[in-house]
Specification:
Elements (H helix, E strand, L loop, with lengths): L15 H44 L6 H18 L5 H19 L3 E5 L5 H10 L4 E5 L2 H9 L5 E8 L3 E2 L1 H9 L4 E9 L3 E4 L8 E4 L1 H6 L1 H7 L4 E4 L3 H10 L3 E5 L1 H6 L3 E4 L9 E8 L9 E8 L6 H11 L4 E8 L10 E8 L5 H13 L2 E9 L6
Parallel strand pairs: 1-2, 1-3, 7-8, 7-9
Antiparallel strand pairs: 3-4, 3-11, 5-11, 6-9, 6-10, 12-14, 12-15, 13-14
Helix pairs in contact: 1-3, 2-3
């Protein structure tokens, strides 16, 4: 008999709840076994990657091969689609990006410069391309990104090239003119979502910090929803979030990650005026990228300042059936007495080693006053 005031003895679990708990344990045991297999396979893969690194070192090849990494990701995503698994392709890509990043670090920890500070969109683009197992170096300007790579302090740099709302990034194009010997070896297309964040409520906001491009991309939304707040330009969206965390009555337009980093409340999400807003980034380095069969080539050229000169240059690509996907004009430096001329930046489909592309580029070099190839590299997939 149970003693007085003691609870009754526990009885074995029974009923629907007990059945569910038993089934839950069975499924968890299966997951534990799968995790064991996954870890074993990931380590086996890393060992093979280490052997590849040894062979690359012996042959003098670079550790980072964007062409090969894109081929791996393409193959993995095709297998994933065939399997009909429940994960979305963005998640699968992120998983394998980090596996490759960690495996690459076994060979060498790359140093990558980007326009900082942390959780700026350039920082997010660097992670998207290289993963977390690299030494990410935040610098204060686009020019400094180029300088760090040029001086050999960093292996690669990540710089914004164009935004779908605001167009070209002039500072980047200017540095390509100054340092045309640096090569574009990869690109990143990042879907850019802006968020309004603060520690105060919407009606108490007196200042909104962000970089000029972000404020421009949210111009209509900000005018309609916080017309009473003064908009103040700063060097980056991450800096804006830091200021919003420190100053009463301040808000920032920045990334979701920046809000988390600085403990800010997300007052409104996705406030960009155009929902398909994206920024394209270039990865700069010193080494050429191999062909993948799905590549683009970036060039700079200058034609004579005469009627029809640009049309004649572009006709070379039309005749060669080569698609131009982007073209921008940029003022060329000139003396006070010289007539203003323009450089043209262009992207075209295909790799510079493909016969028809090589033929067109030679024809352009023979026709134009100047022509330089900035690089051929894999076409980045559409941002998720």
């Amino acid at each position: 008999m149970a003693k007085k005031n003691e609870p009754p003895a526990a009885t074995p679990a029974s009923g629907p709840g007990a059945k569910s708990l038993a089934q839950l344990k069975v499924v968890r045991d299966k997951i534990d076994k799968l995790d064991q297999q996954i870890i074993k396979l990931v380590n086996e893969r890393a060992a093979h990657a280490g052997e590849i690194g040894r062979l690359k070192t012996e042959s003098g090849e670079e550790v980072f091969s964007p062409a090969r990494e894109e081929q791996v990701l393409k193959h993995v995503l095709e297998l994933h689609q065939e399997s009909g698994g429940p994960l979305d392709s963005t998640t699968v890509r992120a998983i394998f990006r980090e596996i490759m990043s960690g495996s690459r670090a076994l060979q060498k920890v790359l140093k990558v410069a980007y326009l900082g500070p942390e959780f700026s969109f350039s920082h997010l683009a660097a992670i998207e391309r290289f993963g977390q197992a690299v030494d990410l170096v935040a610098v204060g300007s686009i020019a400094t990104v180029f300088e760090e790579v040029n001086r050999g302090h960093c292996d690669f740099g990540v710089v914004p090239v164009e935004n779908s709302t605001d167009g070209r990034v002039a500072d980047t194009l200017d540095m390509f003119v100054r340092m045309p010997h640096l090569t574009i070896c990869s690109e990143v297309r990042l879907q850019v979502h802006h968020h309004l964040m603060a520690l105060c409520d919407q009606q108490d906001i007196r200042r909104i910090y962000s970089k000029p491009q972000a404020l421009s991309q949210c111009r209509n939304w900000l005018s309609k929803n916080v017309p009473h707040a003064k908009q103040i330009e700063v060097s980056s969206t991450a800096t804006a979030a830091e200021l919003a965390q420190r100053e009463p009555g301040a808000a920032a337009v920045a990334s979701r990650q920046a809000a988390t980093r600085h403990g800010l409340r997300l007052l409104f999400s996705d406030i960009e005026d155009y929902p398909d807003n994206e920024t394209r980034f270039a990865v700069i380095g010193r080494h050429k990228c191999a062909k993948t069969g799905n590549d683009k080539t970036s060039i700079i050229f200058k034609v004579s300042n005469t009627p029809g000169a640009l049309v004649d240059a572009l006709d070379i690509f039309k005749s060669g059936k080569i698609n131009l996907t982007w073209i921008e004009s940029f003022p060329a430096r000139a003396g006070r007495t010289e007539k203003l001329e323009y450089l043209f930046f262009a992207d075209l489909e295909g790799h510079q080693e493909e016969p028809k592309v090589a033929k067109a580029l030679k024809a352009l070099a023979d026709t134009a006053k100047e022509m330089r190839i900035l690089g051929s590299y894999p076409i980045s997939p559409l941002p998720a």
